[in-house]
Amino acid sequence: MKVDSAGLDVLSREECIELLSSTPIGRIVFTDRALPAVQPVVFCLDGEDIVIRTGGESKLAAATRHAVVAFEADDFDLRARTGWSVTAVGHARAVCDPAEIVRLSTLPLTAWAPGNLDHFILMRTEQISGRRIRG
Q: Where do the structural domains in the chain lie, given as residue ranges?
């Protein structure tokens, strides 16, 4: 296992994808009125793509159309002082194809927020990196 200069385990792409698939909550980083914005989201993976369901008129939906965004998810055990963090960067797009919307609707992606969440955002994981700390 490769270790970085801080003593953290450097995760492979495959490990990063596996860890992302183990948690339903992450944070998407996008640009809102020329400033960075971070929003927690429920997500799931479709292969290596990150899928988020939101309202079509939401700020997130508008900001991520054909934009480069970042995504981060993590999990930590405070008692054991262990955990991991994975960050991905890639292009996001609104899913418009009716057949793709039907397919994505079958994913285990349950929104926590109320409202009409009829819009899917798909983010390609073009770059991905992760670190793990062991207690």
A: 9-130
| Cα gap 116→106, rounded to integer Å | 17
Q: Supply φ then ψ for residue 17, to 5 degrees.
A: -65, -40
pTM of the model: 0.90
The SS3 of residue 55 is coil
Strand pairing category for 119-123 and 49-54 = antiparallel
Q: What is the pLDDT of residues 66-101, one digit of tens each?
A: 889 999 999 999 999 999 999 999 999 999 999 999
Fold of 9-130: Pnp Oxidase; Chain A (2.30.110)
How many whole angstroms separate alpha carbon 95 and alpha carbon 120?
5
